Amino acid sequence: MKDNRFNWQVEVLDDVDINQLVSETKLSATMVKIMVARGFKTSEAIQNFIRDDMAAVHDPMLLHDMQKALDRIFVAIEANEKILVYGDYDADGVTSTTIMYETLDQLGANVQYFVPDRFKDGYGPNLDEYQHFINDEGIQLIITVDNGIAGNEAIKFAESNDVNVIITDHHEMPKILPEAYAIVHPRHPDGDYPFGDLSGVGVAFKVATALLEEVPEEFLDLYAIGTIADLVSMTDENRFLVKKGLEMIPNTQRIGLQKLIEVSGADLSHFDEQDIGFTVAPRINAVGRLENACRAVELLTTFDEEEAAAIAKEINSVNSKRQGLVSDIYTEAEKIALDEEHKDLQTLVIAGHDWHQGVLGIVASRIVELTNKPTIVLSDQAGNGVYKGSGRSVETLNLFQAIDPIRDQFVGFGGHHMAIGITVEDAHLADLANQLEAAANAVRLDSTQQPHLQIDLKVKIEELTEQLVSEIKALGPFGTNNSIPKFELENVHVKEAKAIGKDGSHLKFAVDDGNQSINAIAFKRGELTDVLNNVTNPISLAGTVNTNEWRGKVTVQFMTDDIKIDGLQIIDQRTSNLNKNLFKNDTQYVFFNQKLMELIQGQNLERKFYHYRSSAITKNDAIVLVDCPDNLDELAEVVKANSPKQIVTYFFHNVDFYASGMPSRLEFKQIFGIVKTQKLTKADINQLGAKLKIDQEKVNFMIKVFFELNFVRIENGLLFINAEAQQHQLTEAPAYKKREELIQTQEKLLYSSGDELATIVEQLMNVDNKGVS
């Protein structure tokens, strides 16, 4: 089992009077602490953040070139010029295209839209398409949405042919900007816009606001979808406008959106940003990834209910296909990512053949999750030696800036801090990999370091109430730079764990802190089920809190992001039955009994089997103790020598010496009396147990004690009394002493509770003296 996947960072609260803030804000103490952890130190600051205020929305005229763009658009409308809205194929681009097209159409413009094909046209202004629209269709004004800032060549062609281009975009700005008529961009170096984190749909919405001279509330649903999908900062006006959009969606008049939500299975009664992020946006994105995203614009703009239902069903089917492609390609990419030759690299450039290029960004994201390495995944699907793909990064490396210095070696390139799109010829793949690795080394990126998980507060279970869940909702919508509050539940004990989901990949469990319990869910952690059901240690959880309603009953549940088993992990799986299923994991199996190890090895299980004194055992790793040691010194030797992070205890034993106990003096006397009166063959000895109603193992043990004390002799296969034997105490026999030790050892290791067993092992690891009291 892996340790916790993240490096937990708990916020340190500033020294403020929590009780006073509770009194002034009427919020719970836990909620107040969340706000203080996020930098809100006064009741006024807290209430201003929670309160909805239209003042958060900035004047669109502050955007660079906005007035120039408006003037040119109105001239085009009045002159009935043919206007082209040139969009993009992701959810942000689709919603941007819809807003700009509908706004211009509403103003009476002679307008049409075009969404480039990901595979034929690529991202951003395509020279061939610009030439077609200008030369063949007579387009006189082009307005880009969610693209254009890196389209120098196509835009230069348009302007040189007296066709103005108005860029509305939000992506990273290259050093050399296009020679466009106007550039409306929230981070333009010559602009004064106070909020630089608008998405493409945010910029389009601002242009629409300026054109219509009012905030177009009918577009807020689209604003919410595009902004959430593009993972831009959920702060400032984005947070306010997305919140209004989410409130509007359950009653949206957009028939196509209604039908898409219907086929997605989302619950409109509890619709929030997660429904967009995990159901609506992926479906819109899927169309652009596999087919032409114009179908998504058609869905959002249609007034025909029958057409909307048909397109929504079609899009849902495309999304299912996308999921299958992602799964297949990820399986191949994962093998490459984990290959030995990439082990020491801090970044990954993975090139495949005939992979569907539309889903490579998703695959890259999953490889980043797996390896914690910035990753670019490409494919030469066309078979012409030109690789196209996407990259995803980690917080500490700006992927766009890392690759930008050699952009002239690429056929196409664009993106931002966390994601890029790129097209590169086969001959430059090595240059790309070298540049990315060099950029990672320059910022001292270390992929072995766990990614940070920011935690707002450590809490007790009693603090996680329905009231707190309700208060937290007021902080949303949640997203980049405004994450949902995360908590740490420290030193809780697992009550019950079970795998859930079709393939058992998710985990449902309950934890208890001694006063209260709470149910918890951990997605994609089903592999921990057996561990949590057998772990003896307290654990800590990091995650969020929400409510679950079942048959009218509302309960609070903990949505677990990460699990930490505190201290040495003792996984109690003690058994008296060894079978192949106990050796199914690729871990280190340690034996105290050499013969038992050889017997199990003979079953060709192809596992790592070691004698407990082997120097080949990997230190600071997990081990499985297969059989029960003869004494605690043997156990101390293996745990102290290897300092394992996790110990799984099977403690298999052929004989339960503790349960059997030491033979009584009467039983010793009975056996001795028989041997004294007659000579015994081996067959006679093997029948004594049944004859005297004594366990045969005990009979054999007593004979061995007599033999070690020289009380008996064997000649010609017969056992008889040694008439010359000297007097000895039974306790002097080595076998007697060993049995006493075995009884004491098994009592501690086989009959202790899980907590007692953990204490014993921890004491053996931490003390130098022998034995455990």
Give a structural overview:
It contains 27 helices and 25 strands. It is elongated and about 130 Å long. The model has no long low-confidence stretch (mean pLDDT 93). The strands form six sheets. The protein has a five-stranded parallel sheet. A five-stranded mixed sheet has the order 7-8-9-11-10, with helices on both faces. A five-stranded mixed β-barrel has the order 14-15-16-18-17. α12 packs across α14. β17 (539-550) and β18 form a beta hairpin. It is an alpha/beta fold and 773 residues long.
Strand order of the largest sheet: 3-2-4-5-6
Q: Give the rounded overall mean pLDDT.
A: 93
What separation lies between the terminal Cα atoms? 31 Å
Helix content: 40-55%
Helix/strand structural class: alpha/beta
**Envelope shape:** elongated
Strand residues, percent: 15-25%
Low-confidence stretches: none
Largest beta-sheet details: 5 strands, parallel
Number-wise, the strands total: 25
The whole-angstrom Rg is 35 Å
Number of helices: 27
Question: In brief, what are we looking at here?
Answer:
The chain has 773 residues and is of the alpha/beta class. The chain is 40% helix and 19% strand. The model has no long low-confidence stretch (mean pLDDT 93).
Blueprint of the fold:
Elements: E1 7-10, H1 18-25, H2 29-37, H3 43-50, H4 66-78, E2 82-86, H5 91-106, E3 110-114, H6 127-135, E4 141-145, H7 152-160, E5 164-168, E6 182-184, H8 200-212, H9 220-229, H10 236-248, H11 255-264, H12 273-290, H13 294-301, H14 305-337, E7 348-352, H15 360-371, E8 375-379, E9 386-392, H16 399-403, E10 412-415, E11 419-425, H17 429-442, E12 452-455, E13 457-459, H18 466-473, E14 487-500, E15 506-512, E16 517-522, H19 529-534, E17 539-550, E18 553-565, E19 569-572, E20 588-591, H20 594-601, E21 608-611, E22 622-627, H21 632-642, E23 646-652, H22 657-660, H23 665-677, H24 682-692, H25 696-708, E24 712-715, E25 718-721, H26 734-750, H27 754-766
Parallel strand pairs: 1-12, 2-3, 2-4, 4-5, 5-6, 7-8, 13-14, 16-18, 19-23, 20-21, 20-22, 22-23
Antiparallel strand pairs: 8-9, 9-11, 10-11, 14-15, 14-17, 15-16, 17-18, 24-25
Helix pairs in contact: 5-8, 5-9, 5-13, 6-7, 8-9, 9-10, 9-12, 11-13, 11-14, 12-14, 13-14, 14-15, 21-27, 24-25
